[in-house]
């Protein structure tokens, strides 16, 4: 059996496992890692060795872009203070502590132990987003989890490159050199990502071709990553920034059918890539173990210790930081909540990003000699990823339920119903004024009938938000009705955006209702 056959079969298996996980409401990443481990341990399965840049160049950009597109600029502004403490302080502390522990219990040298610490220092946006989709976290908590996982990569990437340079060339670490690298990587990546987003916005404003816009959306993350990497900046940061910017402005630069098609394509791509990459994490562990030397066979004991260290330093950092923030907000109130920091701590799984970094570790030093303990670093990284994804993935939902901060389905349903009722009332008020406009004269005799039909439709939408028993108007819309209804959909969409910008509804509610409006508008366009 060839490696290509194994990969194809793995994709089929991963798709089946992920589909079953959705059906049974189980954490798909955790099941996929287990499936990959099972396949990798089978004696008849050949060794699958991934080229260093397969994950980082081919798989990572679209997954990061999709995850960043779910994060809004408004939510980022509301959580930037605690996220900053996690992005810089926690990443640095994790890298140092994990490196120290690895140096103490494994044969790793100081330089290679620091590489391991830098690789495992950041949480993974792909794993966090995949696990977070199953949970009904409050908007602020969800924003903190996603924002931290998206933006801590720049910090860990700087530490990783400094550690690799030290291990390969034997150069010394300097504070000034580290700060300079961070500014180049993170700052340069952010500027390039914003520039790519601006160019893409200009292009998408000038086209309404669904195929062309879909191709542009698929190419955007790769363009951001490649351009940034070629300019020696952070491709990861560039992809994330472009994804956040375009995700927040996508409703302004394309019409409903295009948005629906892009979302459908990205949902498919994300599902396939996530399914395959988490299965590959499990498949990579047995492959990495086969390349260990005699003095590195203690990895089954070292992996749990390192995984526990990763979780412990996160707990020891987040709880005091959360207590300090709560203390300041409550002006000295001693009754501090453990619920949010517990969920934030437990949501810090590792995943695709650490694997991509570990696979990119150079094979040799500057002298041409093999880099010592590279296989052990990859084994410890993959093992830690697998352990955190499986253990924290299966236990995160119980932790969220035990904390009591999860939103009840009734809460989300009430917010959505309240929003639908509000925007329908706004459109109905506009419709009452629309009947007196001169521009309706060009619609002919059908205008009055169409206005009545549109009014009945809006009243039915209001009734739907108040009562689950609802039936659509059974009359087929005429040309005049479709024209009026499209105008009213624009009014509803504008009011929906106003509610969101006024912080009156969550981003999740806005996205769901905007999708409903897009579906209706696309249906009207299809009948023209």
Describe the structure.
The protein has helices at 3-24, 28-41, 52-69, 73-105, 110-119, 125-132, 139-169, 175-205, 210-230, 235-253, 256-289, 299-329, 339-346, 352-359, 374-403, 409-434, 446-466, 479-501, 507-526. With 528 residues, it is an all-alpha fold. The model is unreliable at 468-477 (pLDDT under 50). Belongs to the monovalent cation:proton antiporter 1 (CPA1) transporter (TC 2.A.36) family. It is found in: Cell membrane.
Name some characteristics of this structure.
single chain, 528 residues, mainly alpha, 19 helices, 77% helix, 0% strand, elongated
Question: Outline of this structure?
Answer:
By secondary structure, the protein is mainly alpha-helical. The chain contains 19 helices and no strands. The longest helix is centred in the middle third of the chain and has 34 residues, at 256-289.
Helix content: over 70%
Along the chain, the helix and strand elements come as HHHHHHHHHHHHHHHHHHH
Helical region count? 19
Mean pLDDT: 80
The shape, in one word, is elongated
> Structural class, from secondary structure content?
mainly alpha
Beta-strand percent range: under 5%
Sheet with the most strands, sense and barrel status: none
Through-space gap between termini: 53 Å
Spatial extent as radius of gyration: 26 Å
Number of strands: 0
């Amino acid at each position: 059996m060839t490696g290509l056959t194994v990969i194809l079969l793995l994709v089929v298996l991963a798709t089946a496992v992920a589909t079953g996980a959705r059906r049974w409401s189980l954490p798909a990443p955790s099941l996929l890692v287990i499936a990959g481990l099972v396949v990798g341990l089978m004696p008849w399965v050949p060794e699958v060795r991934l080229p260093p840049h397969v994950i980082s160049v081919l798989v990572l950009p679209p997954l990061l872009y999709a995850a960043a597109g779910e994060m809004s600029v408004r939510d980022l502004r509301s959580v930037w203070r605690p996220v900053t403490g996690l992005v810089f302080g926690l990443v640095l502390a994790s890298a140092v502590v994990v490196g120290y522990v690895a140096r103490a219990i494994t044969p790793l040298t100081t330089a290679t132990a620091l590489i391991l610490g830098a690789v495992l220092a950041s949480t993974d946006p792909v794993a966090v987003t995949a696990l977070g989709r199953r949970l009904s976290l409050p908007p602020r908590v969800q924003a903190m989890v996603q924002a931290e996982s998206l933006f801590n990569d720049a910090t860990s990437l700087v530490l990783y490159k400094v550690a690799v340079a030290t291990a390969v060339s034997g150069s010394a670490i300097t504070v000034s050199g580290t700060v300079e690298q961070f500014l180049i990587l993170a700052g340069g990546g952010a500027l390039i990502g914003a520039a790519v987003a601006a160019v893409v916005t200009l292009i998408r404003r000038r086209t309404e071709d669904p195929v062309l816009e879909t191709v542009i959306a698929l190419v955007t993350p790769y363009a951001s990553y490649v351009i940034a990497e070629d300019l020696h900046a952070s491709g990861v940061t560039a992809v994330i920034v472009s994804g956040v910017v375009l995700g927040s402005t996508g409703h302004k630069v394309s019409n409903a059918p295009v948005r629906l098609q892009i979302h459908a394509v990205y949902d498919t791509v994300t599902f396939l890539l996530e399914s395959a990459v988490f299965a590959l994490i499990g498949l990579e562990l047995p492959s990495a173990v086969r390349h260990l030397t005699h003095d590195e066979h203690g990895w089954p004991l070292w992996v749990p210790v390192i995984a526990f260290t990763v979780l412990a330093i996160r707990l020891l950092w987040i709880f005091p930081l959360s207590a300090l923030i709560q203390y300041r907000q409550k002006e000295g109130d001693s009754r501090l909540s453990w619920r949010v920091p517990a969920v934030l701590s437990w949501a810090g799984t590792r995943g695709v990003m650490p694997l991509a970094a570990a696979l990119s570790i150079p094979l040799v030093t500057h002298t041409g000699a093999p880099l010592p303990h590279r296989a052990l670093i990859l084994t410890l990284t993959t093992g830690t990823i697998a352990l955190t994804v499986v253990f924290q993935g299966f236990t995160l939902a119980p932790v969220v339920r035990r904390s009591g901060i999860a939103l009840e389905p009734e809460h989300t349903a009430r917010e959505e119903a309240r929003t639908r009722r509000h925007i329908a009332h706004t459109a109905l008020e506009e419709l009452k004024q629309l009947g007196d406009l001169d521009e309706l004269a060009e619609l002919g005799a059908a205008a009055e009938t169409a206005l009545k039909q549109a009014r009945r439709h809006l009243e039915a939408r209001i009734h739907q938000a108040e009562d689950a028993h609802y039936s659509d108007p059974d009359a087929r819309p005429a040309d005049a009705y479709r024209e009026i209804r499209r105008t009213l959909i624009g009014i509803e969409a504008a009011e929906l955006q106003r509610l969101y910008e006024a912080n009156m509804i969550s981003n999740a509610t806005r996205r769901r209702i905007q999708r409903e409006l897009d579906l209706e508008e696309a249906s009207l366009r299809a009948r023209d």
